[in-house]
Write the C-alpha cells for this entry.
Amino acid sequence: MPIDTSSFGRAIASARKELRLSQKELAGKILKEEGDPITPQYLNDIEHDKRTPSSDHLVKQFATELKISPDILYLLAGRVPGDITKAGVSPERIRQAFTAFRRALKDK
C-alpha cells in the first residue's frame, strides 16, 4: 500500500501504520539533536498536521525509520533541505529549480 502523500503528517502516519509501529514505538526511535526521543504527543501532533518537524535532523530520522525518501518528506514539509541552503543556493535558483520540476511533472 503506498503512503499517503497529501501532507507530511499523513505520510508519517500511513508509513508508520504500514510498518505496524505504534506512535509510542516510533516516537522512541526518533531522537532529537540532544539524544532524547520525541514524545508520542509530539508525534501525534505531527501526524495530525498540528506541527511540523523542527529540524532537518528530525526529517532525516523520520525518513530513515519509515523508509521514505528524505526528499519526499522535505517537499511535504514545505522545506528546502539544509544541504541546499547551507551550500548558498540563492532563492532565485531554488525557484527556478521548482519551476523546472513542475514543468517536468506536467510533461509526463
